[in-house]
């Protein structure tokens, strides 16, 4: 067995030494601490993979040790040891980041099995983090755009080819698909990258304000114009002007914008002097401009001036292969922003994210992950942390939490198995994966349980048949 470092923390000397002896005999590298304060020092010196700690200790209890170690940046896996009467405390510890807990008096075989599981899970988590690092290194090479789907690869190619020209680019796509990021990438890929990138949200301004924002105004040109103001065209001279939601501008502004595109000159509001600027125009809209032209709401000549090069961003539902990379990006972003140690997804969480159609696209996904990180009580996001619309149907009946304390372990196991089977639509293989037990054990338990009318519970048909064949 390869050496794995285990720190055993318990104020009872005999119990602590007995556990250490067992682990040493199994090939683990073991250190000991008699209390939480001593354990913090040992964590810094010994860098254990797993901290096996008692919950109730003088000076500093196991729960405080866990929280303090996390605050100090330790990534050690915690397994709590507790008497059955303290199960609620152990559950609280797991919410704070512990991976598992053991009931006292300890069974040596159970200790070894639990350690094997948490070390395997830790190894998988580290491998997943390494893969995430690889994903980050790939997807971030193209500026801040996250994703490697074939649709995005085609867009990247268009951006690279168009960036070196001054051609106007029209970016189309639903709200929340990342049109501004495409505009910024186009600017950064161009020879203008050291010049200004100026953004105007056309839908947020009235006609008069938008005209003033775009072209500037002279002193006294309207009430409140107390001084000359340079417009966004002047500010973007030599660089890129991004006109977001171009489909919302009024006919009067459309006329003036057309003139700028055709002649590369304009006048400030209330002015007479023609100004010339060198500006690359990038426009974006969620509207169907062809339909707007047919309806007479958008000038056809302006549409063709804007649509020299067009890019259509696919909605997130059409590129779900990019969701894992986006989730990793937002997890890291908001974990750092809120000072939390959320670095992964619990079983079933990614499936819930992939099953949603994301009508709000990347903006909705980002909002969902930010919310989940804020509410998360462990190092992995669960479906309970997600917005209700992503969770699917909830199990009915008695709350599992209401069973502890006071319930038998058999009743708790029964509730866990039945609730998990309900969550995975009766699949014993998926339930076994979630619960960390064998398929055979679930199938045997189902034969023991019965429905209210006395009929035995069964797995889904194909798995039930497999079980029958094995028997």
UniProtKB/TrEMBL annotation:
Keyword Transferase listed: no
Highest rank taxon of the organism: Bacteria
Domain spans labelled Sigma-54 factor interaction: 145-374
Residues carrying 4-aspartylphosphate: 54
Domain Response regulatory: 5-119
Entry-linked CDD domains: AAA
GO biological process: phosphorelay signal transduction system; regulation of DNA-templated transcription
Sample GO molecular function, one term: sequence-specific DNA binding
Keywords, alphabetical: Activator, ATP-binding, Cytoplasm, DNA-binding, Nucleotide-binding, Phosphoprotein, Transcription, Transcription regulation, Two-component regulatory system
Main subcellular location: cytoplasm
Keyword check for rRNA-binding: no
Compartment(s): Cytoplasm
An annotated GO cellular component: cytoplasm
InterPro entries in UniProt: AAA+_ATPase, AAA_lid_NorR, CheY-like_superfamily, Homeodomain-like_sf, HTH_Fis, P-loop_NTPase, Sig_transdc_resp-reg_receiver, Sigma_54_int
Name of the protein in question: Response regulator of zinc sigma-54-dependent two-component system
Xref: SUPFAM superfamilies: CheY-like (SSF52172), Homeodomain-like (SSF46689), P-loop containing nucleoside triphosphate hydrolases (SSF52540)
Organism encoding this protein: Pseudomyxococcus hansupus
């Amino acid at each position: 067995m390869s050496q794995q470092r285990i720190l055993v923390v318990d104020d009872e000397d005999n119990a602590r030494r007995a556990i250490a002896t067992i682990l040493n005999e199994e090939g683990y590298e073991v250190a000991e601490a008699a209390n939480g304060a001593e354990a913090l020092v040992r964590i810094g010196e010994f860098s254990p993979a797993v901290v096996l700690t008692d919950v109730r200790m003088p000076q500093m209890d196991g729960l405080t040790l866990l929280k303090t170690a996390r605050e100090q940046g330790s990534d050690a896996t915690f397994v709590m040891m507790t008497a059955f009467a303290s199960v609620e405390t152990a559950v609280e510890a797991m919410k704070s980041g512990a991976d598992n807990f053991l009931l006292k008096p300890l069974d040596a075989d159970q200790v070894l099995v639990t350690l094997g599981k948490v070390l395997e899970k830790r190894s998988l988590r580290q491998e997943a983090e390494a893969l995430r690092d690889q994903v980050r290194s790939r997807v971030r090479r193209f500026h801040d755009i996250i994703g490697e789907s074939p649709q995005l690869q085609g867009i990247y190619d268009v951006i690279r080819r168009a960036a070196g020209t001054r051609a106007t680019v029209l970016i189309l796509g639903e709200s929340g698909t990342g049109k501004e990021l495409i505009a910024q990438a186009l600017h950064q890929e161009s020879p203008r990258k050291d010049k200004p990138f100026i953004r105007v949200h056309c839908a947020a301004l009235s006609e008069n304000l938008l005209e003033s924002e775009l072209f500037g105004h002279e002193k006294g040109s309207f009430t409140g114009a107390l001084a000359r103001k340079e417009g966004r065209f002047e500010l973007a001279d030599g660089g890129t002007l991004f006109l977001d939601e171009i489909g919302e501008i009024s006919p009067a502004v459309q006329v003036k914008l057309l003139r700028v595109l055709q002649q590369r000159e304009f006048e400030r509001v209330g002015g007479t002097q023609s100004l010339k600027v060198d500006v690359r125009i990038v426009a974006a809209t969620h509207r169907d401009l062809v339909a707007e032209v047919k309806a007479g709401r958008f000038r056809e000549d302006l549409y063709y001036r804007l649509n020299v090069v067009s890019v259509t961003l696919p909605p997130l539902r059409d590129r779900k292969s990019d969701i894992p990379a986006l989730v990793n990006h937002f997890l890291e972003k908001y974990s750092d922003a809120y000072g939390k140690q959320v670095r992964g997804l619990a079983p079933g969480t990614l499936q819930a994210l992939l099953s949603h159609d994301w009508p709000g696209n990347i903006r909705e996904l980002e909002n969902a992950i930010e919310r989940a990180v804020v509410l998360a009580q462990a190092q992995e996001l669960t479906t309970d942390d997600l917005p209700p619309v992503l969770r699917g149907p909830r199990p009915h009946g008695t709350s599992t939490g209401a069973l502890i304390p006071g319930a038998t372990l058999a009743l708790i196991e029964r509730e866990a198995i039945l609730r998990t089977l309900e969550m995975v639509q009766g699949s014993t293989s998926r339930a076994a994966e979630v619960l960390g037990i064998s398929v055979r054990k679930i199938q045997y338990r189902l034969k023991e349980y019965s429905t209210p009318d006395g009929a035995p519970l069964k797995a889904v048909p194909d798995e039930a048949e497999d079980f029958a064949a094995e028997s």
